Structures are given as structure tokens and as C-alpha cells.
Amino acid sequence: MFRNYLITSIRNLIRQKEFSIINISGLAIGMAISILIFLWVKHELSYNKFNENADRLYRLVQTQYYSSGPLTTPCMPGPIAKDIREEIPEIANSFMYYVVTATISYEDKLFTEEVRLADPELFDMFTFEFVEGDPNHVFDEINSVVLTEKMAEKIFDKEDPIGKIIKYNEDHSFKVTGIIKETPANSSFRFDICIPFEYIKNFGFTLDQYGWNTFYVYIQLENGIDYKQVNNKIKKYLENKSREQNESEDDEYDSNIDLFLFPLTKIHLHSYSDSRGAIQYIYIFSAIAIFILLIACINFMNLATARSAKRSREISIRKTVGANRNNLINQFLGEAMIISFLAMLLALLLVWQLLPYFGELIEKNIIFDFGDYIFWLVLIGITLFVGLIAGSYPAFYLSKFNPVKTLRGGASKGKGNFYFRRILVVFQFTLSVGLIISAIVVNRQLSYLQNNKLGMDLNNVMYFSMRGESNEKFDVIKNELLKNPGIKSITRANSIPFYIGSNSGGFDWEGRDSDDDILIGFGVTDVDYIKTLDMKLVDGRYYDKNIQSDTGAIVINEKAAKAFSMDNPVGKWVTWGDDIKMRIIGVVKDFHHLPMQYEIDPLVLVYSPDRCRLMFVKTIGGNEEEIQDQIKASWENIFPNFPYEPRKLKDIYDNAYTDEANLIKIIGYFSILAIFISCLGLFALAAYMAEQRTKEIGIRKVLGATMSGIVSLISKEFLKWVIIANIIAWPITWFVMHDWLNTYIYHTKLSPDIFLYALFLSFIIAMLTVAFQAVKSAIKKPVDAIKWE
């Protein structure tokens, strides 16, 4: 029986080549997209799970509550990692770390690298594969350093790195004691250079003070401990510690802080404090995969039912000779499974070819692991899903034909499935239109984030890291570079202007309500800061190095002036802590000092040149290569021991949205493919309907119908379905996209033109798809058409 069904299925596939190709191609494209999305989702969900202790590792996070709103941050005070391990028995281990940028040198080689300082417990808690060195003793000496193989090769080339000495900012020396393999890409904790955390004392940091949150902490719990129970236990730990320390110093302490553990396996996809996070893209892409599979399945169902008249006699004869309905259902489901299997083979070939380009597009190393049993289970699941969904309705529909009526010609018109086919086409195009609208919206949101007015001009601004000698000789390099007519302005600061992350409470001002404890951001700057970044002053002036009193002054933004309830803030005083009193000399227009996902907060710009570590150079634009060469020559002449490594500020800002930009591109590509799959089905259905109406078209032409009239006759019904699909898709997509946009503080609008564009695009696509078959039918000779039956 099975052999007979298999032979019959293969014969039908060969006999109906055009429709078989369309069916298999549509299903294969849908399956390939689903497999690519699965591989990406699997990669994203795998972050940090390679660690042997992954289910016991947590990041320590705190939420500080102010009258201006809560602040959630992983930044911690110096003593907490050691103290919490000693006082909470459920905590098995902990380590503290910090990240700095430094100039690494070996002999005549210079590199600017990110250096991680970490406690030795790091190597007990996280999984690293050591090539050389003993993980239990690599940090026995405080001047030790652990490198990755890649970094060791970069610094030492072919030399054996163990025991070699490298220098940090020319002032500190470290001996290589360990080499590790590259940390997997799906890790949230990676480094190329790591030195003992205790060495941070040599950089002037204090590790015994609560209330000064600078460092980061990871915690490992004992086996079988529920972290939520520990969260209940440590909730007020940080607040109590801070209060104890302040009381011992006879200071009044008033704060509200919650401490909690955040699972390592959630760090990559989840936000610490709200619903924002990469997890939303997991949901979006999973939905896209399901939608595209459904679109492909609908093609199969539509074509199978549309071609039902071609197989009605076969079915009737089978029933007449004894086949029951179950036999026929099994036959048609079997045929669907065969087509699904063939489509899966083609899909795997497509994935194999497309995976390198897909990985390059999303900038991730996505692998095709044939040894992963989960991968094969997913492939089998997709094959069965497509076969059952695509083949279920045709199987049940075709198997119920009445053999007597069919043999008499009663089923040949195929009217029983008239409405169902139209419902399927409308549903299919509803999904496609929804994807079009979604792609337009997310693309506009990215454009909004990248191009919205920031309150400053990042164009033609380069910045350089400055450390040691390069920072000490800032005035020398500034005066030298300003001789160049291509350079407009130079300044320095402690952070890039769109990510000023330092902040504090404890401010007081005249007229402050005793209940007001407002979180204020801190930006450390030098003179010419607002000039270089083209910021606008609302009132007062900016710092002048010739005015000595400016060292105790501040410039605030409009949001801070509003928070202080000051109509005319210039000349007024603000107190921070118990003894730091600062006079306001200017008010700068609000600018986005944090990424666009965050609201503009009150900000204070402080004049403190010695604390600045970045130099910003504003050029006039044009002749960029020549100006760069001149800056490089001056830099290398003044700072021969520091590498010349300029970066463009605008590029850094755009790169902050690289992941979102890549994902948005993928949504666009997948939307195009979804439309293509829909058009395959529409094309085949139009061909079938044109074939069914061949005789009618011939008679109409004999009676004087024009070609445009015939094309309109065949096309108008399809276009009506597209309009209905748009009407259904609009409110659903508006609700989903409105909810998604609200996850951003600043976002684009869902303007009517987005939906009109979707209508226009779907209308044009459907018209072009159907028009070919319509024109083909319209140009046939009437005599041939009338003879058709």
C-alpha cells in the first residue's frame, strides 16, 4: 500500500511540474528562513551557558530610589564582594572586577587595549581553558597578567610569552603568568588582558568605602540555593552597610537601596530593571519564522484545493474499488510529507549556502552543528509541522468527495472550496502586509535614534584616549594642533558626550523640599567643551581657564534647573554632600547625554581638566585625509610613546545601534522573502483560475472584449483580496508596533503614510504577480480558447 502511495505521489509531482516546483520552492524558502532564525535564537539563548557553574552565577545589582525616580546599576562599592561572601552563608564565592583602557607596550610595540582587573576567584567561578599557567596560582603575584592566545601572539609574535614583561602606560610592569584560549563569542564576560584586581590601589582607587559605586561583582551560590531567597535576605544589605559606615563617621545617612542578584544566563537578553532588552527580538523573530512557515503552508493548501478537480476522478475511482476515507487521508498526508521532506532537503542546501552571509550580516559566528541532536529534532519538527499543516486541509477536503457525483462531473467545478481559498489568500497577505509595516516601523525607529537631534553636533569630531604623558601635555598638543587652519576647536572630557554615566544624589540648594533627593548626572569637562560639540547655552557662560573661581563653579542643563526649581539659576549656589559648595555660572540646553533609550536627566558639567581622559578635535570638514596626516605628525612628534589611534565620534554613536541595525536589516530581508513566497502562491493560483476561465475569456473576446478588459477581469478579484488583507492587518500591526515603540523613551510616530506605503507596495506586488497570467490569457486566440473544453 505504502509503495503504491509513494509511486502515485511521485507521478503527481512529475505530472504537475509547475505547481510542484512552486510548492517545493515556497516551502523550502520558508523552512530555510525558519532554520536560520532558529540557529540565531539558539545562539542568543546559549550566552554564558558554556560555564560549568552557569546556573549558580549571578551579577550583583542595586536599585537606588530617589524622588526623581529609581536608578538600577551593577556598579558596586569596593568592599562588598569580600564582605558579602563572609556574611551570607548561601554565597559560595565572589569576585570583583573593573575595566580600564591602557597603552600596552613590549619592546618597541605599542597597543591601546582594554584591560580587565579581576580577583583570582574569577578563574574558579568562570570556565576558562588554560593553555599555559596554573589557574590556581596565576595571580599569586600582584604584578601578574593573563593573556589570551590571540593577544599573546599580537604582542609577542612567535616568542614564548610566559615570563615575559609587558608595560602598562609605561609606568607599571607585569609578568605573563598564564595564557588562555579565546573565550567563546557567546560570553558576556570576556577579556584579552587581565591583571589582579588588588593592583587597582596603585591607580589611586580606594577599596574600603561604601557609597562610592565604581566596580562590578559576580556571585556564586552554593548548590541547590534559590537566588530569590538570597535576594530577600540581601535586599537592604548595601543600605545597612552604608548607614553603618556613615554613622561611624557621625554623618547622617538617608538612602533607600535594594540589592539583588541577576542570573548570569539572563544578562545578554534581559534588562536589569524593565522590559527593554534583546529578548524582544527573540519573540519578534520567532513570530516571523512561524508567520513565514504559515505563508508557505497556505500556498500548498491553496494550490492543492485549487487543483482538486484534476484529482477528483482518481479519488472517486479509489473509493469505488474499496478505499475508505482514512486510506485517502493517509495518502494525501503522505504526499504532503514527501513534499515537505523534499523541501527540507532544499532548505538545508539553502541554509548551508546562506549561513556565512547571514552570520556576516548580524556580525555573529552562527554555526551549523550537525552533531547537535536538538538541531535535528527541530528539523524533524519543522518537516512534520509543515507536512501536517500544509497537507491536513487538502487531505480532509479531497477525501470527502462523493464518488457518484464526481464521476458524473459534479465536483469538476471546484466550488466547494471557493471561500476557503480566498480566506487563505487574505490570511496570507495579512501576514505579509503586517511584516511590511513592521519592517518600515522598525527601520524608521532606527533612523530616528541615529539621526534625531541630540542637542550637539558629532560630525567632524575625532577623539583620542589620553593617559599619562599625553594627558599632562594636553596644552602642548592643543596649541600645536590649533595652528592648523583645518581644526576649529579642541577640548577634553572624562567620557564621550552621549554616554555620561556618572551620577550621584546628596544635592542641596536654596528652597529644596526636605523630601527631594534628586539623582544628578556628572560630566567632567574642560574649556571649549560646548564650543567643540556645538552645544547651546541658554543662560550665563561656560568655563574660562583664566577665571580662577571657575574651579569651584558648575554649568547645569535645563533639566537640572527645572529640578532645582530655579527660574534664574545663574549666580545661585548648590551644595553637594556636607562641604562642597558650587556656584552656577551657566545653563546649557538639554542634550542627550545618555543613549536615546533613556530619558534626559538633570546633569552637571564640572570643570576639572586633570580628571579628563579623552581629547576631542573638531575639524572644518573636507580634506579629511590631509588633516588626519597633519594631526598624526604632530601627535607622534609630541607623544612618541603613545599610539595614534583617532576615532570618529559619529561612528561610535552609530555603532551603539549596530545590533539593532543588523536585526532591522534581517526583518526587512525576511519581509521581502515572505512577500515572495506569497507571490509564488498568488502566481500559481492566478494561473489556475485563468486556466479555469479559458473558455469564458475566449467567448468574451469574440464578443468584443479588449485586452485591458480581460486583464482587469482576472486581476480585480485578487486586488480585492489584497485590500481586505490590508484592512485586517492595519489595526493588528498598529497595536503590536505601538506597544513595541513604547519600550523606547524617544521614538518615531506611527504615521498614516506607513500604512499607505504598505497598501501601495502590496497592491503593486500583487498586480505584477497576477498581471503576467492575465496578459497571457488575454492574448490567446479566441478559437483556441473556445476549443479548450
Which keywords apply here?
eight-stranded mixed beta sheet, 17% strand, alpha+beta, six-stranded mixed β-barrel, 789 residues
How many extended strands? 23
Cα separation of the termini: 35 Å
Low-confidence stretches: 248-254, 411-416
Strand content: 15-25%
Radius of gyration: 34 Å
Summing up helix and strand content along with how strands pair, one would put the structural category as: alpha+beta
| Largest β-sheet summary | 8 strands, mixed
Share of helix among residues?
Answer: 40-55%
How many alpha or pi helices? 24
Overall spatial form: elongated
Mean pLDDT: 83
Provide a brief overview of the structure:
The protein has 789 residues and is an alpha+beta fold.
Secondary-structure map:
Layout: H1 2-15, H2 17-45, E1 57-66, E2 69-73, H3 80-87, E3 91-106, E4 109-118, H4 122-125, E5 130-132, E6 144-148, H5 149-156, E7 165-168, E8 172-180, E9 193-196, E10 216-221, H6 227-234, H7 237-248, E11 257-263, H8 279-306, H9 308-320, H10 325-362, H11 373-398, H12 403-407, H13 418-451, E12 461-465, H14 469-472, H15 474-481, E13 487-493, E14 503-504, E15 507-509, E16 520-525, H16 529-532, E17 537-540, E18 553-557, H17 558-563, E19 573-576, E20 580-588, E21 603-607, E22 614-619, H18 624-638, E23 647-648, H19 649-655, H20 658-692, H21 694-702, H22 707-741, H23 752-778, H24 782-786
Parallel strand pairs: 4-9, 6-8, 16-21, 18-20
Antiparallel strand pairs: 1-2, 1-10, 1-11, 3-4, 3-7, 3-10, 5-8, 6-9, 7-8, 12-22, 12-23, 13-22, 14-16, 15-19, 17-20, 18-21, 19-20
Helix pairs in contact: 1-10, 2-8, 2-10, 2-11, 2-20, 8-11, 8-13, 8-20, 10-11, 13-20, 13-22, 13-23, 15-18, 20-23, 22-23
